[in-house]
Model the fold of this input.
Amino acid sequence: MSSSRRNKGFVLFIVLVIVSALSSFLFSIYYLSRLTYRKTEELKDYAVSYHAAVSAVKIALKFLREDRNGYDGEGDDWAKPLIYNYRGIAVSVRITDECGKVNVNAVNDPRIFGVLKRLLNNIGAPSSVADSIKDWIDRDNFPEPEGAEEDYYEGLGYRPDNGPMKSLGELLYVKGINERLFKKLNNYLTVYGNGKINVNSAPKEVLLALSPDMSPEAADSIIEARPITEIARLRELPGITQELYFEIRPLITNRCNYFRIEATASYGEATAHLEVFSTRKRALEWKVVQ
Done:
């Protein structure tokens, strides 16, 4: 009897182990299936959000192609943020022009180089960075007084492009520019455009950098008069003398053909954010922002 009870006890133990293992297995299957389902739903939601953001970019490009009012910047129809909701998909689009910034690819022009130096001073950045940027894009190997050429960069394992920057992110490789400074410069510099500054979108710091004689009052009068539909109108503004007008006239415009489109779309638990640099006709640089 004692042996029989031991056998029954052993069998019961085995059964309990099997039931426990089976329960754990079934729970794991349930958990993984729920996890897979949740991941599938998240992927589906993100796919919907992403394609909605792409569609928003296409709508923004349509706005830009149809714009023919003779000026660009503040006051333009495309400059107004667009927000809408369609069948549970929330979409927002914001367009800004890139011509209100200083084009780093134009600093071989002594006038633009001077604007860049004054801008850096206005925003509290080292003016020596202007020398480093110029050396990065010029084709010679002779460094500016505070710049750097191949000898400096070879020690870091790479060389300067000695040509136009394709993306503003290249600034992170330039001597004297770290991530903190780059975030600040990102608001004032661009790699797009013909070098002329759009007075309808330039921040005050950029307007002040146009000339050593540009006063804060003159810069404010430009901002308050926007949109500037005719450049000659600047001559009538407070603080803009004839001498100042003719000095800055070759450096300014009220038009632009390069834009930054930010499109965000949300559906369910997912959100997609796109940043696109474009002309009026096509995208030039496209990235998903996390």
